[in-house]
Design goal:
Blueprint: H1 2-24, H2 27-38, H3 43-52, E1 56-65, E2 69-80, H4 83-103, E3 107-119, E4 132-145, H5 152-161, E5 165-166, E6 184-187, H6 191-213, H7 220-225, H8 227-230, E7 234-247, E8 253-259, H9 264-267, E9 278-288
Antiparallel strand pairs: 1-9, 2-4, 2-5, 2-6, 3-4, 7-8, 7-9
Length: about 290
């Protein structure tokens, strides 16, 4: 009975200590304390943390990226004396395009729809009455996965027979904006995510380089085992990747360059004019910072 009272008193004392700390600490300090508690390195990790803290790590990196989506830009048109009828005719054309694209495993992104009035020639000679015709247009983009078996050339031919008028991508050919017009381009579904995976692989390579050259060979496995828990504290100070020269919107070949931290807005706008694999090479500099 006495032992149970002693145990109860100890539990109440511990609760009182934590309750007092909760009253004294700010929410930010409580969060920091929680994060610190989560990071509890074992003896092996602590050993390599002491050896590596505030040190720089370097690695040369290489990787490959291939666009996974082909993009076709186009417009559909319809006209009629009544705007509602022009819209109805346009919707019928869109439905046919959509049915065909989906049958090929593609998707359609609808962009802006525009409406205009177009003046026609006079109804009869010697009259000034010119009827107005409502002209409605729908811009759209059609996407296919490059990994699919869809034949893009056959798709272009069929879409043309369904009255799709192609809208070219900006492309400077021979120093002036003229023919040919690029109607198919290639993009990445999630380029920031792909680059972040390369970034993580390069961080691992930088740590592996240090484990190989900075420790005894018998400890290399233990050094690599410590990476998983220490990697969040391995901070990247700089990283760059450069591709081989590829054709860009200027009509000339130039390499694509990527710098960490990645700018998602710019990456999502990258467009290639060929279904080509990017061969990337570069380097990374990182530093292990002590947990706060």
């Amino acid at each position: 009975m006495e032992k149970r009272h002693v145990r109860l008193k100890i539990m109440l004392l511990i609760f009182g200590v934590f309750y007092t700390l909760a009253l004294l600490l700010t929410p930010a300090q409580l969060l920091q304390a929680e994060q610190t508690a989560k990071f509890m390195p074992d003896a092996n990790e602590l050993s390599y943390m002491v050896k590596a803290v505030n040190r720089g790590f370097y690695a040369q990196c290489s990787a490959e990226l291939k666009p996974d989506r082909s993009v076709i830009r186009g417009q559909l048109y319809a006209e009629d004396a009544k705007p509602s009828e022009a819209a109805r005719l346009l919707d019928l054309k869109i439905a046919k395009i959509k049915e065909y694209v989906e049958s090929k495993g593609g998707t359609i992104v609808m962009n802006e729809r525009t409406r205009a009035i177009v003046g026609k020639t006079p109804v009869a000679p010697n009259t000034d009455k010119i009827p107005n015709v409502f002209f409605t247009a729908q811009k759209l983009e059609i996407y296919f996965q490059t990994t699919s078996s869809t034949n893009i050339d056959e798709v272009l031919e069929t879409l043309g027979s369904l009255e799709l008028r192609y809208t070219n991508f900006p492309y400077n050919y021979g120093g002036s904006y003229t023919q040919p017009k690029m109607v198919v381009a290639f993009r990445f579904s999630d380029l920031p995510k792909a680059l972040e995976q390369i970034h993580n692989d390069c961080k691992l390579q930088a740590w592996k380089n240090w484990c190989t050259t900075g420790t005894e060979s018998l400890e290399e496995d233990k050094c690599m085992a410590a990476f998983n828990n220490l990697s969040p504290h391995l901070i990247t100070s700089s990283m760059n990747l450069t591709s081989q020269p590829v054709v860009n919107e200027s009509g000339y070949e130039a390499p694509l360059q990527f710098y960490y931290p990645w700018q998602a807005t710019n990456l999502n706008n990258i467009t290639l004019f060929g279904d080509i694999t990017l061969h990337l090479s570069g380097n990374i500099n990182t530093q292990l910072l002590p947990p706060k």
